[in-house]
Design a protein that fits this description.
Number of domains: 2
CATH superfamily of the largest domain: Type I PLP-dependent aspartate aminotransferase-like (Major domain)
Oligomer: single chain
Strand order of the largest sheet: 2-1-3-4
Shape: globular
CATH class of the largest domain: Alpha Beta
Structural class: alpha/beta
Helix content: 40-55%
Number of strands: 4
């Protein structure tokens, strides 16, 4: 009756824990919920005021597919000026959250049966996203003994025939690894495996 790929997806572990924590907090306000990874403060008043201002000025209708042109230009400028990433408005797609951006990219790249690598430990949504588009998730286990460092050996050992995608947080969970060493490693992987695409879920 239902789509087979969706039917196979297990319930979100983080959402399950969040729902349980909310019930517990209703009985005990001292309970601290660490499952969702969201800030423990309300959205700053300045941001709320800007949202209201834009809504009051008519920004409440359909926009073009990739997002408002002026918003995409601002995002591209921010990436160029603050992160030294040479992107332009035409390279930007605005999505309702990082999870949907990863899903769209995986849906565009993977065909049924294609394999995708993700780092473990890491974001629990990655294998579900890969499975939702018909892909086969391959976890790359990063050992505690090496402080969860990403190495070429680990990536090459996990790679299998038919692997088209590597998904990685930047900085990477859980140790916030980043910098030139990781970028150089991935560049070498791309040269060795030119068919392997990489999704960076960039936290900036």
């Amino acid at each position: 009756m239902y789509n087979e790929n969706i039917r196979k997806i297990a319930p979100s572990k983080s959402m399950t824990i969040m729902a349980k924590a909310k019930k517990m907090k209703a009985a005990d306000p001292e309970i601290v919920d660490l499952a969702g990874g969201e800030p423990d403060f309300e959205t700053p008043a300045k941001i709320v005021a800007e949202m209201i201002r834009y809504a009051s000025n008519g920004y409440t209708h359909y926009t073009v597919g990739p997002g408002l042109p002026e918003l995409r230009e601002r995002i591209a400028r921010k990436l160029r000026e603050e992160n030294d990433c040479q992107y332009w408005a035409d390279n930007i797609v605005v999505t309702p959250g990082g999870k949907y951006a990863v899903y769209l990219t995986a849906a565009c790249v993977l065909n049924a049966g294609d394999k995708a690598m993700y780092l473990n430990p890491g974001w629990v949504s990655y294998p579900s996203i890969i499975g939702a588009v018909g892909g086969v998730p391959i976890g790359v286990n990063l050992p505690y003994e090496t402080d969860y460092r990403i190495t070429r050996e680990l990536l090459e050992n996990a790679w299998e025939e038919g692997t088209k995608l590597l998904i990685i947080n930047y900085p990477n969970n859980p140790n916030s690894e980043h910098g030139a060493q990781t970028g150089l490693l991935l560049a070498r992987m791309r040269r060795a495996l030119p068919a392997l695409l990489t999704i960076f879920r960039l936290v900036v």
